[in-house]
Amino acid sequence: MKFRASELPLTPLSLKDTISIRTGDWKYVEPFYEEKLSPCISACPVGTDVTSCIALLAKEEFQEAAKLWKESNPFPGVCGRVCPRFCERECLRQHLGGSITIHLLERFIGDLNVDIQNKSQKTGKKMAVIGSGPAGLSCAYHLSRKGYKVTLFEKEKLLGGLLRAIPSYRLPPQIVDKEIEGILKQGIDIEINKESGKDFSLEELKQQFDAICIATGLKERKLNIRGTELFNVWSGREFLKLNNDIQNKKITVIGGGDTAIDAARVALRKGSEVFVFYRRRREDMPANPYEVEEAIEEGVNIKYLSEPLRIEKCSSFLRLFLKKKADENSEFFIDTDGVVMAVGEEREMLNNEIKDTFLCGDILTQKGTVSHAIGSGKETASLIHKYFFGEETSITLPAVVESEDLNLDYFKEEYPPEEKKRDMSQRIKDFDEIYQGLTREEVIIKEATRCFGCGKCSGCDNCYVFCPDAAIFKQDGKYIIDYDHCKGCGICMEECPRGVISMRRTEK
Amino acid sequence: MKIFTIPEEENMNPGHVACPGCASALSMRLALKALGRETILTVPACCWSVIDGPFPYSSVKVPLSHIAFGTAAAFASGIRAALEIKRKKANVVVWCGDGEAFDIGFQTLSGAAERNEDIIFVCYDNEGYMNTGVQRSSATPIKAWTTTTPKKYPKQELKKDLMEIFAAHKIPYAATATVAFPEDMIKKFSKAKEIRGLKLIHILSPCPSGWKFPENLTIKISRLAVETGIFPLYEIEYGEKYTINHTPKWLPVEDYLKKQGRFAHLTKKDYQEKKEYVEKKWLELKEKSNRLKN
Ligand SMILES: Cc1cc2nc3c(=O)[nH]c(=O)nc-3n(C[C@H](O)[C@H](O)[C@H](O)COP(=O)(O)OP(=O)(O)OC[C@H]3O[C@@H](n4cnc5c(N)ncnc54)[C@H](O)[C@@H]3O)c2cc1C
Ligand code: SF4
């Protein structure tokens, strides 16, 4: 094409916009929205959507928060009190003021006592669950919420399994009662005082049910030393069940787990002097570190690296012989009125060759915590559902947010509230609960609003605001990336406070 | 939960050809949101001569004139005169780099300020001649590397204090702004729009290619410039009334300097000197802001 000079404008004029210039072709990496799993959720053995629940609490939508929580975990009141808080160890708030006290929020949610309805469609399948510990109850709960007709068999007369062994100063029994009641309301039949292997056999059960889930927990391990058969020598669980008074006695506990520490603190509350002997070091104790600390505070004497050898009966007392670990010539003894052997649990040999039989809880995982038992019950329920109906229950898990993914510039340093705790001099005299939880105000104003909401888009607009290329726009409350013009600078990824935006290589 | 609320109106199109992560492109986007379509831009030789788009394209939805280096304020004065003759209203805006404002167009700017021309003079300051290959300008900070101030002989002179120079011209409004504080920037443009006379807006515009930092860190660097006290956000009215808009968090100056390759050769002593200089400037600013309250 040729122009004559007179046909050209005096000054060159650009009349076209740049939309046709595909600056997006420059890039080799590109951003994309990818909501991620917060570390608290990923650490939770039950997989509860902690982040969404906290967001609901912050908005004062308490009922909704409780319902969402109970969709995965029917025991918030219990777990809020006794779970070892795996979530809090991973919480990214620890880099800016301290982890969210998730357990206190969970406890608050539990204490709201919100019931959730079972709106499931009947599947027509009948399930038997044996054992009503947290695992069996959780499995029964989730199965019944998937539409199964569930019957729960328990050899004791009280439901709850080892939840009933946890002393009331840590877990008041009313909390357990209340939450079990909520579970049974899903429509579960119960058969108490029915022991499998004694009152019925698995084969018999198989005749009446489509499948069986075994959640009978672990048995206490026996100590293989002389004298364990003596009077006033108990296992941990036996001791915790005792109702008698043991005022002004001297009680010796062997072990370093939850049971040992609980036995020691119970003995202390009953008015005894208490010694605990543990065979390894303090940092090796499987018991919750803060509970060990509290026990020591309360006056429990703990000796480490000490192995029991034998118990002998002397006139009116017992003599427990021990030795220092890895030192054969260090035998010593302690005179005591009673010995509690809380040396852990072991799995019972089990005949689970029977078809359509599943396991869950401690008997399967041996993890030894309430939340693992609940998580396992939930998982097994999904597994059973998949077994019968082939429904895909697990989708590929999203990535977990790491601290580098967050942009902490957008958050202030803020500290968790201090939970009220009963005074030492008071609490060792009775069995009332030590911790008092948070008030409504503390929950909403302090804790819930402190949560970053890791990995979840809060609609903060930062990606839209900071795009130098006007390549992010909003549509129906969502952010859309215009890949024809996005140059892949990564500013949106960097400025997203919550790590929702990731970068990937472009396909070329 | 929004952190920043900015006008939804978009007066700049994608497809402009700024480097990825360019703060001057974002500055334009934000500025036009505040200024609106009734705006006429004047762009002397600077990065934006390129960024706006190759002929026959333009990325902004308002008229923009590409003009010769050194003439921006004079050209804009002419546009204002023409508008007045035609009895038309518009925001007359100069959009230029530090090369124009601090060095080559300094004379026309000073003249326009003395005549108090009714224009908004915006300098997006990337502290050097970036699109010609990162040469030093009088806006380049002391000790910085550029291709004309190599590491062995980094820049020895202090950055020219543009704000103070124009405070001395007693112009009605002068303000600093930067991209990490978008609401503050938008507020300043909106305010400038309403004032008659010469308005100077000095934008710190982090440049990934010239300052040598990864392009995703533009906003971070901009924020650090403010939070370390290196680039305070403030306004001066009629050369007298100083208002500080944001109190820095006083993060260590190293946080800002260490993120940029152009300062990679700095020593502990340099950091210390920088810190002292920043503190001294802040005290001066503080003192001025206390001088005339309301
Ligand atoms: C003193 C103590 C303190 C603890 N403290 C904590 C703590 O603070 N935090 C924490 O997370 N965990 C704690 N634990 C551990 C936790 O209680 C267990 O890991 C959890 O209860 C295991 O759940 P489960 O359902 O698998 O088994 P269990 O709770 O053991 O439940 C098994 C149930 O099956 C029943 N059963 C057994 N055999 C049969 C049969 N043949 N027929 C019918 N029913 C049968 C039992 O009676 C029981 O009800 C503590 C445990 C103890 C003992
Ligand atoms: S800040 Fe909130 S979302 Fe992130 S890990 Fe902690 S509790 Fe979970």
Q: How would you sum up this structure, described in words?
A:
The complex is a heterodimer of chains A (508) and B (294). Chain A is an alpha/beta fold. Helices cover 30% and strands 16% of the residues of chain A. Chain A has a five-stranded parallel sheet, with helices on both faces. In chain A, strands 7-14-8-9-10 form a five-stranded parallel sheet. In chain A, helix 4 packs antiparallel against helix 6 and helix 7 packs parallel to helix 14. The longest helix of chain A is centred in the last third of the chain and has 20 residues. In chain A, 43% of the residues are buried. Chain B has a single domain, classed as Rossmann fold (3-Layer(aba) Sandwich), CATH 3.40.50.970. In chain B, helix 2 links the parallel strand 1 and strand 2. The longest helix of chain B has 24 residues. Chain B starts with 22 loop residues before the first helix and ends with a helix. Chains A and B meet through helix 17 and helix 18 of A and helix 1 and helix 9 of B. The site of iron/sulfur cluster has 15 residues of chain A, from helix 1 and helix 2.
Gross morphology of chain A is elongated
Structural class of chain A: alpha/beta
Using the coordinates shown, work out and report the CATH topology of chain B.
Rossmann fold
Structural domains of chain B: how many: 1
**Whole-angstrom Rg of chain A:** 29 Å
Number of helices of chain A: 18
Order of helices and strands of chain B: HEHEHEHHEHEHEHHEEHH
Biggest chain-to-chain interface with counts: A-B, 41 and 41 residues
- Name the overall outline of chain B: globular
Bound molecules: flavin-adenine dinucleotide, iron/sulfur cluster
Biggest sheet details of chain B: 8 strands, mixed
Proportion of residues in extended strands of chain A? 15-25%
Strand order of the largest sheet of chain A: 4-3-2-5-16
**CATH classification, class level of chain B:** Alpha Beta
Number of strands of chain B: 8
**CATH architectural arrangement of chain B:** 3-Layer(aba) Sandwich
| Beta strand % of chain B | 5-15%
Number of strands of chain A: 19
Counted by DSSP, the helix tally of chain B is: 11
The side-by-side strand order for the widest beta sheet of chain B comes to: 2-1-3-4-6-5-7-8
Portion in helices of chain B:
25-40%
